[in-house]
Amino acid sequence: MTQMTRRMALATMGAALATPAYLEKAHAAEVTLRVAHFLPGVAPMQTRFFDVWAKEISDASEGAIEFQMFPAMQLGGKAPQLADQARQGISDISWTLPVYTPDRFPVAETFALPFMVRNAEKTSIAMHQLMEEFGQDEYRGLKPLAFHTHDGGKFHMRGQRINAAEDLKGLKLRAPNQATGEMLTLMGAETVFFPVTEMVVGLSNGVIDGCCLPYEVVPAYKLQELTTVSNEPEAGGRGIYCNTFSLVMNERKYEGLSDDLRKVIDDHSGADLSRRLGAQFDEFEAFGRSMVEKQGNEIHTIPAAEIERWREMAAPIYDTWAKKLEDAGLDGTAIVARADELLDAQG
Question: SS3 for 168?
């Protein structure tokens, strides 16, 4: 060993011995959490939320918690299986939609009824409160981290303007959930339901004429290239529909963490995270709309008076949903009324 090499080795050893204990901990992860979801890795949900949130938790834990991201169902299976993947330990954390498994999480689905949305932030605040009051038993085996929604959906069509319910008659539409599908069927549309991941094929091959989705989905699936007209409700009232989301963690994994690491997870979940997710989805919505405008697609406004007529047509759906909740042993009338009250309280 040359004198120079010996000096370098001694210097390296000295630096290692002098490294503070907290820096050593910061580089030695105690637990790695696998996060699974269905959107592409380039989607804003990954790049602007999950990546940022993961870093915040890693920093707060001084590196004791690290994450592995598995977007686009990279752990296998299909989107409706995400909640079960977290329960079974295939993933440690899953982000999923209750509507992908209809009637299984009925309280969490309640805000997916037609016209139960303002913007995403306000509706997410209301949803989290509803779940705290009525939905605590729905996610057994899982640790709920947040509940939220997206902004109200719009009709993205391959060429059709929608001014009235009659314009939907005979159109083949991808329905975003069962309750909205029932409403569209009442208005004469022919509806099909499949996960958003399969929507591109349906639009490309003409199986459907359009879909009802928020603008935030546009960039991930290049929806602006598959449709030419986006029909949105006149501003000021409630939106047509929203879907609800659950961010859930394997309960055993959570309980197996040390007290200090559970506190880090707790500090980065709950009502504040639900509100934050809703606010971010409002940002995603604005960006998605800008992509439609940049493409040169038409953005058509559905008159407020017509939307009110649709709300009246949808009234029986609320009664049916309340009955469904009651059949599940819940106070359906109280849950639907409370959801409406919480939404109104958001202004």
Answer: helix
Quickly list DSSP for 79-128.
GGGHHHHHHHTSSSEEEE-GGGSTTTSHHHHGGGSTT--S-HHHHHHHHH
Check residue 76 and report its DSSP letter: S
SS3 annotation, 250-275: EHHHHHCCCHHHHHHHHHCCCHHHHH
Contacts 24+ apart (CB under 8 A), 20-25: 22/62, 25/62, 25/63, 25/64
Domain of residue 266: give its range. Answer: 27-149+242-285
Tell me: pLDDT of 340 over 60: yes
Of the candidates 183, 173, 254, 256, the residue with the CA atom closest to the CA atom of residue 210 = 173
Task: Please check whether residue 175 lies inside any domain of the structure.
Answer: yes
Same domain? For 169 and 34 the reply is no
Shared domain for 203 and 248, answered yes or no, is no
- Pairwise CA distance, residues 83 & 3, whole Å: 60
List 142's β-bridge partners, or say none: 250
Whether 70 maps to a domain, the answer reads: yes
Judge if 177 and 280 occupy the same domain. no
Specify the number of domains making up the chain: 2
**pTM, full prediction:** 0.87
d(CA 311, CA 217): 24
In a domain, 62, yes or no: yes
Q: Say yes or no: 55 and 133 in one domain.
A: yes
Reported as a single tens digit per residue, the pLDDT across 64-106 is 999 999 999 999 999 999 999 999 999 999 999 998 899 999 9
Beta bridge partners of 94: 36, 248
Q: Are residues 184 and 277 in the same domain?
A: no
